[in-house]
Amino acid sequence: MSRPLEDYAAELHTQGYTIIEGVLNRSQTDAAIAALDEIFEREKEIGPQRHWHTDVHQVAYMLPQKHPLFRSFAFDTQVLPLMQLILGKDCVLGSLNGLSMTPGGGGQNLHLDQSETVPGTVLYINALHTLDDFTKANGATRVVPCSQDRPFPRGQEREEIEKEAVYLEAPAGSLIAFNGGLWHAGSRNTTDKPRRAIHAFFHRPWVRPQWDYPRSLSPEVVAELTPEQKRLFGFHARPQWYDYESDMVRHD
Q: Which fold does the domain 5-250 belong to in CATH?
């Protein structure tokens, strides 16, 4: 990391995003590409049926369940401290997905990764790890800088805000971290090669996660998790519940 952690945190707070190059080395990106491509191949029949594989993108959900590499992926010594600096030491990983913009396909519309804009507060951070070089030609993520504090426009106004968007180009192995309320989108991949990334979506422990990991991971996978992995996957953040059969207050 070429600059102090606080510099990247300041950029994320002000402009809504930051880029850190060299978070993953070549062997790490190669291993992640191999694991992700294996999952895409395994899901090549159900993917189109479930709209995971489209003419815009391929997406693979719940990666920690599908490959052991991704059970420790979010513990990078550069990434997790940045997430904790902004979201708190008890932050949770709400999802870990793989996404590739389809070669020759379409692009996404600008959108948010959270339900509503919350000015002045960071609730979610999408920590996007580039596995291939991100270029304008191959569908680099585009964002509207500083939009995390503005109400998201609807209808025809979207055409106007596209004029404000910039493309976040970065070499493979980079981290592109952005506020979940930042207006952003995956762009059209005009090349004949995939543009792959891993999206680690962090959040404060008291907001709604994208995925319920304690219910979504198999007992076999849960048995292999370390206490710290369980903490990051939100096992400690579940609400208490009332067992009407025993009149007991339960904590999971």
A: Jelly Rolls (2.60.120)
